[in-house]
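Checklist before submission:
- one chain only
- standard amino acids only
- sequence pasted in full

Submission:
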Amino acid sequence: MLSVEDALSRVRAAFKPLPAETVSVSEALGRVLASDAVSRVTQPPHDVSAMDGYAVRAADVASVPVTLEIAARVPAGGSYDGEIQAGQAARIFTGAPLPHGSDSIVIQEDTDASEDQVTVKASAVQGNYVRPAGLDFRSGDVGLHAGQRLTARDVGFAAAMNLPWLAVRRRPRVAVLATGDEVVMPGDPKGPNQIVSSNGLSLSAFVTACGGQAINLGIAPDNRDALAAIAEGAAGADLLITSGGASVGDHDLVRAGLGDSGLEVDFWKIAMRPGKPLIFGQIGGTPMLGLPGNPVSSLVCAVLFVRTALDCLLGITEDALALESAILGSNLPANDRRQDYLRAKISLDGEGRRMATPFGRQDSSMLATLARADCLIVRKPHDAALESGVTVDILPLSGKFSGI
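Returned file contents:
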């Protein structure tokens, strides 16, 4: 069996970033930058006031109280073309540019003003309540980097940099095909020996959450010809994902059925639990990941391998599989030769430390525990028995745009 690390390495090597396309900044949320976003403006463009008050020369208010002539009024969006002379001040509002000659702001609470004069009651040093030009960023600065998935904050930053359009990676097109005579779609008539299918829908949702476009091909019956015919719907996709039919039983037909359509297998079987019977290969030039049929196995494999493939296609630079640490909440027996991914809840212990407590039963058919889990505890092959209170590696299932 192949190690998880080797399998991930082979998946990464099989994909390269997709071409770029241009989108409006208003449509850029969740997209991945294909090139650096470079500011077209300096912000603020001038020295501006950070408060409502009076623009003065610091030298004129070194000794207070002092009464100054109001030479101008400068609202936000306006300006004063003249110059503040000795003994003068300008009424100014937040965001307005400082008039020439002034170098400090006295807030209005520290003044008494009439129509033409203002008495300053508190001194102010040079630069007081002044936002200098370029305090936030300058024209030519790289504000956002290629490979970065854009958040709402990033969209606002791009807009502030005066970038109405952004170059982003095309969304990967991912065909999703569930298999099995024993599964039916939610709401469809269900035979006495059938179960409701969740894999196609959960995997499609996962693809969408990771920034791809899911093409749900439905459910293929356990028939080689039918499987091959339905899989033709993956033509033109950037990735085909199947679930079920990847093991060794008489009805596990993915390799056999798609083999007739030219499936070339790179690897099959990974030393991990859940998710051992995973296939990776190519069919008609389209990369293919054949995931196990058990719902938990399918989604755990998606977190590791589908997410990795999509991140490569999108050119994402952040490592979504970077492990974090937590305190183990219960004892664990020694591990065997497979790498374990245990569903666990996160809480805080008495010292405020993050604690991960695995569910008592880890059967790969139990989707309810995955839905309630906050993380996966990751255990290396042949890991020794562990007692509660030790530090373990975890893979969070929230944040990082995990989609699960």
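Reviewer check: Residues 4-16+171-314 form a domain with the Molybdenum Cofactor Biosythetic Enzyme; Chain A fold (CATH 3.40.980.10).
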